[in-house]
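Side project, low priority. Logging it here so it doesn't get lost.
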Amino acid sequence: MLAVAGLTKAFGGYTAVADVELAVEPGAIHAVIGPNGAGKTTLFNLVTGVLAPSAGRVVFEGQDVTGWRADRITARGVARTFQNIRLFREMTAIENVMVGAHCRTSGAFLAAVARLPWRLSPGERETIRRADGLLELVGLAGRRDVAAGELTLVEQRRLEIARALATAPRLLLLDEPAAGMTPAEIQEANRLITRIRDRGVTVLLTEHHMSLVMQVSDRITVLNYGRKIAEGSPEQVRRDPEVLAAYLGAEA
């Protein structure tokens, strides 16, 4: 589904991502791990068009999308969340999800928000129905009309996932989806990621919680100082000496 070849990003004299190769299979949950500063978020930014690469290619479903604008890549079928949450804090939960759906709808979401229910077009009604379904998927159905800024951190992370799913992606990139969560909340994040995959969405994630990564991932890629140092199944990565030295340490 996603093929990254020779991907490199340099900022002046600093190379954040260096000649990275990555292949994500359809229907997989693929994790990218590594220490802070390993280049994980930069890699995500390159794949999703937030940054343009210095060298290399990004190919999605056989089409070269290298250097495309972020909105064009989203319309092509790639969505993401951010390590630093980027919600519209004054909008309600359902309004945030409806914003995410705008690239798949013919009616304007603002019109759907402003109009009386009996004046909505069929397309606007469908947008609201889908947004409600996504809020239910992430466990926020009861928080539908609460402003995003009033939600807890965990709820905000779930809402950002719902908003990303509203773009109807075939590939979803999750950047630190379990950051700040308790062990019980991490297990719920595990179940949510699995449900998303079971709905037909391929998942590429980066995460520091190794318990989550090892449980949910089909395949893991390990970065260190911007370079790929290992790749394989969770068990293979867990036993890799270079990974143990660079990242997992005693947690392995």
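Brief comment: The first helix runs from residue 40 to 47.
Revisit when time allows.
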